[in-house]
Structures are given as structure tokens and as C-alpha cells.
Amino acid sequence: MNEEKSCIIKHFSHYCSLTKEEKTLLLSLEESPSNIKSGTILWEMGDAANEFCTLKSGWAFSYRHLENGDRQILEVFLPGDIIGLREFAFSERLENVRMIDDGVVCHFPHKRMLDIFRQSLPLTSVMFAIGSRQQALMTERLVTLARRSARQKMAHFLYEMYLRLRQTNPDISNQFRLPLSQEQLADVLGLSPVHVSRTFTALSESELVFRDRHHLTIPDLAALCAEGQFDDCYLTDNVRPLLGDTA
């Protein structure tokens, strides 16, 4: 595989510079890819937790069903993300994971992660950094659900998606694809689908976000950032200083 096309290498390169050997190790996590259709469940809560997967392409999300039938989406995964890190120390899955759109997923056992830990200190450090980021994303999502207004919730989430996409695609413009449905956005933000629609309308009238089906245009990124009261401190992680990496 061409390392220039590897999302996981682009993802890890955000945290530190990688040697040729480390890139080869990461490419091994993208072996035996499986084409997965939109809506496919990768695993369900209670399943055996004995492997991770890398999302080579496509989007996915983790979620929990509530007793009243409602669904809460916990995390949105983008190309290059590793899914299942939080369950490394557990024998059973703690959440369901489903594909948002068509994609390519590469499964690898927990033992493969231990092999990487033995072979590379920088990659081990990055794995810990990614785990820390996932925890920070979850914390920020909790604050959004509990304390932000509908406009702030939407603006904050959209700007977060833009920054996360830019991590593996630094040439991304203010126009990008957001494949989540109105119902999925509602389940991320703790709103009703109708409220999601009204919020998009309000943001459009304020010329902050324009949506055409699954395509977004953000005319003024700084204005959207201000609307969501966005502080990117939880997305500016890296382990370069720790590893003496000045690149």
C-alpha cells in the first residue's frame, strides 16, 4: 500500500514524525481490508471485545440505546481513526458501532497492538495520546449536551468536524461532506430531528452554515467558531515535545 494514501499514517503523523519502520508497522494495521456497507453494525454491546479496527475510509459512530427506545450517539469516527480503544481492558463491548456510509474497515486483534507496543515507543505514545483525545472528545460532548444552546451545539459540532477532517486532509476547504442524517445529528446533539432542521435554518439565515444534503459550506470559519464558543485546546494534542520531536 502507498503510505501517502494511508489515513492511519496521516493520523499518527499529526502527533509526531514517523520513521520508515514505524510507517510499515502502521500499514500492517490496514492489511486485509473489508468493504463495509452503510448501516452495517461492526459490533454490538456485549459482544466479545478481542479486536480493534482501523477505519480506512468512510464514517462510523458508536452509540447506546436507552430503555425508552431513544439512541445516544457517543462518538463519530472518521477515516484514520482506531475504533475500540476504550475497550482494550474489557472482555465485552461497551457500546454498539455502526457504519454511517460505505467504507473500508481493517480488523486486527488486541495482540497486534501489544506487538506494536513492544516494537515502538513513539507509536505506543501516540496510542496513549489517541486514547486521551477520545476521552477529551467524550468530555466535550458531555458539556455540549448539558450546557450549550441548540445553535451552540450545532456550531461547535460542525467546527469540530472541520478541524478533525483537516488533521488528515490539511488542504480541506470551507466546503466538506458531512454524511450524517438529520436523525443522526439529533442523536449526537441531544435534539429532535425537527430542532436540528430549525437550527440549520437559523444558522443559514445568519450566513454561518449552508447545507445542501450532505455537503456543507462554512462562509466564515472564524464566525462559526465564535458562535459555538469553540476552544480547540482538546484537539491540539501531540507528543512531539515528549519525544524530542521538533518537526
From TrEMBL:
Give a yes or no for keyword Cell wall biogenesis/degradation in this entry: no
Q: What is this protein called?
A: Crp/Fnr family transcriptional regulator
The Gene Ontology biological process annotation of the record reads: regulation of DNA-templated transcription
DNA-binding is among the record's keywords: yes
Q: Which residues form the HTH crp-type domain?
A: 148-222
Source organism of the structure: Vreelandella glaciei
Query: Could you tell me which SMART domains the record lists for this protein?
Result: HTH_CRP (SM00419)
Q: Which domain of life is it from?
A: Bacteria
- One function term, GO molecular function aspect: DNA binding
InterPro entries in alphabetical order: cNMP-bd_dom (IPR000595), cNMP-bd_dom_sf (IPR018490), HTH_CRP (IPR012318), RmlC-like_jellyroll (IPR014710), WH-like_DNA-bd_sf (IPR036388), WH_DNA-bd_sf (IPR036390)
Q: Which UniProt keywords apply?
A: DNA-binding, Transcription, Transcription regulation
Q: Which Pfam families match?
A: cNMP_binding (PF00027), HTH_Crp_2 (PF13545)
